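R.M. (postdoc): so does anyone remember the format we settled on? I'll just put the structure tokens first.
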């Protein structure tokens, strides 16, 4: 039987505990999980793709593959032999976009299935955008992102004081 391989795609700029929760939850469901960091020239990121990959690798088990991709997700899935896409669903607001993406990916390759997973309630409001914003104003992110990510943020984003 062929291996059941899943791809978990995203920007991960930076990785946070909501992402890690989804990776842990989907790991037992598949023979292999590939975390796929999107290389998107059009989207300005805080961390380079290489930095994001390094940061994710520090946090996941050695049997989770971490790679970058650009272009169509279905093409990347073909390359790695995956049939399932894993996506995290936080709130109803995520649903519309995720439904569109899932149906488009299915249209592009009818063998591709998207699996939606809910994170632990503690992380339901968490996003990379909010992590960066809260950090830059000196907010406490304990329990929401790994310590190594806090250190990386500190090296990249000087804290701003409150607006005068
Ligand atoms: P995007 O795909 O918009 O660039 P991310 O890279 O942050 O966003 O997200 C990658 C995947 O992780 C998406 O499926 C997203 O819904 C999911 N995700 C993001 N934040 C959370 C969270 N707090 N809990 C669960 N899943 C999340």
């Amino acid at each position: 039987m062929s291996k059941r391989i899943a791809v978990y795609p995203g920007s991960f700029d930076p990785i946070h505990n909501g992402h890690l929760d989804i990776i842990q939850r989907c790991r037992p469901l598949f023979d292999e999980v590939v975390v796929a960091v999107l290389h998107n020239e059009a989207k300005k990121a805080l961390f380079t793709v290489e930095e994001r990959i390094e940061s994710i690798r520090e946090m996941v088990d050695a049997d989770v593959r971490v790679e970058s991709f650009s272009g169509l997700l279905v093409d990347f899935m073909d390359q790695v032999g995956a049939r399932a896409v894993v996506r995290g669903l936080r709130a109803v607001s995520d649903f519309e976009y995720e439904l569109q993406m899932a149906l488009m990916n299915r249209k592009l390759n009818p063998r591709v299935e998207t699996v939606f997973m809910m994170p632990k309630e503690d992380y339901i409001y968490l996003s990379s955008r909010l992590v960066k914003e809260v950090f830059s104003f000196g907010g406490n992110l304990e329990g929401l992102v790994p310590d190594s990510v806090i250190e990386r943020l500190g090296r990249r984003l000087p804290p701003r004081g409150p607006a005068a």
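R.M.: ...and that's the designed sequence above, right after the tokens. Also worth knowing: Residues 10-12, 18-19, 22, 87-88, 90, 94, 119, 123, 126-128 surround adenosine-5'-diphosphate (CB under 6 Å). The first helix runs from residue 17 to 26.
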